[in-house]
Amino acid sequence: MKRIIRTDAAPAAIGPYSQAVQVNGMLFISGQIPVEPSTGNIVQGDITEQTEQVFKNIEAILAHAGMTTDNVVKTTVFLADINHFAAMNAVYAKHFSKDFPARSAVAVKSLPKNALLEIETIAAL
User: Fold this and answer.
1) 116 vs 63: CA distance, rounded Å
2) What percent of the chain has pLDDT over 90?
């Protein structure tokens, strides 16, 4: 059975999609950009600060679904500038305690609200 996940601790969807959908023990989290949930604004700062905010958003959604980053099996990272890969990767590594998830990382022309990155996440119970 499909369950829609929605928490005020992460940014509200800015279009016709859900923050996350849980089905058959899997959690599919929509791409998270570095939006501060209480203001709806992009966190100002460099790729490090923006990556930290993206993980705050992802971790809030995971927690609402009763999961942690230990449950993450796959991520897709979208970067507005591939030159930010190393700095993003340093922050990314801090948010997983063991057994890193599978991952893809790609450079894109632009992201919503001119974010520097977006991360899409899949987790499993």
Assistant:
1) 24
2) 95
